[in-house]
Amino acid sequence: MVLITGGVYQGKEEFAREHFQIKTGADGGRAKTEELYQADLIADLHLWIRGELRAGRDPREEIGKILEKNPDVVITVAELGCGIVPAEAFDRNWREVTGRICCLLAQKARAVYRVTCGIGTKIA
Fold first, then answer.
1. Nearest in space to 8 (alpha carbons), one of 111, 99, 104, 80
2. Where is the signal peptide (predicted)?
3. Rounded distance between C-alpha atoms, residue 24 and residue 87, angstroms
4. What is the pLDDT of residue 63?
5. What is the pTM of this model?
6. Which among 29, 59, 61, 32 has a CA at the least distance from the CA of 43?
7. Where residue 21 sits, what CATH number does that domain have?
8. Is 64 exposed, middle or buried (0-12, 13-18, 19+ CB in 10 A)?
9. How many structural domains compose the chain?
10. Interior CA angle at 48 toward 16 and 44, to 5°?
11. How many whole angstroms separate alpha carbon 108 and alpha carbon 70?
């Protein structure tokens, strides 16, 4: 698995498509969890996490299954931990859960990149 993180609209998905063999992709904001099991690219994982939390599910439980069934996936996720702390409790929890999942993913990843202005830097 490869993890690509960075700010919103910084070119993470384009970087993934340029540097890795991506044939199928899943949009984290729209895809059903089952689609994440087979996609070469999971774009915007943070949006999938938000959807899982909104539905009352714990995405931390499912993320292990996704990696088990799809060990070579490339994942993009926006950095949510920078900036102003959200006023809404749900949004604070979403930010925390996303950050903790990213820490888990980074530990398991064969490579981690941070993309800024379309330029990727390997950080692990």
1. 80
2. none
3. 36
4. 97
5. 0.96
6. 29
7. 3.40.50.300
8. exposed
9. 1
10. 25
11. 13
Q: Whole-number mean pLDDT of the chain?
A: 97
> Could you tell me the residue range of the domain that residue 87 belongs to?
2-122
Q: Calculate the dihedral angle through the C-alpha atoms of 57, 1, 40, 76, rounding to the nearest 10 degrees.
A: 60
pLDDT digits 0-9 by tens, 82-116: 889 999 999 999 999 999 999 999 999 999 999 99
Q: 């996704």: which residue's tokens?
A: 66
